[in-house]
Amino acid sequence: MKQSPLRHYWQVYKKMASTSASVEMSFRISFCLLVLMDLFFFLSILASVSFIYDHVQTIGPWNRDQLLFFSAFMLTIDNIHMGLVSTNFWMLSFAIRTGELDFTLIKPTHSLFTVFFRQIRPSSFVTLPVAWGILIHYGIKVQLSALDWCLIPLFLILGLTLLCLIEFIVSTSMFWLTEGTGINFLRMQMQQLSRWPNFVYSSLSRKVLTTALPVLLIGSAPVHFIYDKNYWPLIVAMLVAIAACYSVLLFVWNIGLKNYDSASS
Amino acid sequence: MSLNLLKWWQTIKVSWVKYTAYRLNFFLQIVGPVLVFFFIKYNLWSAIYGENPEQMIQGYNLKSMVTYHIWSMIVTMIGQGHASYNMSEDIRMGRISSYLIYPFNFWEFHTASFLSFQFLQLFISGVTIAILVAFNFVELPSTYFLFHGVLYTLFISLFWFTLQYMAGLLSFWLEETWILRVLMGIVTGFLSGYLFPLDLYPDWLVSLLQYTPFPYLTYYPIKIFMGQPSPLWIGYAMIGLWIIIGATINHLIWKKGIKLYTAAGM
Question: Is the Cβ pair A34, B179 closer than 8 Å?
Answer without folding.
Answer: yes
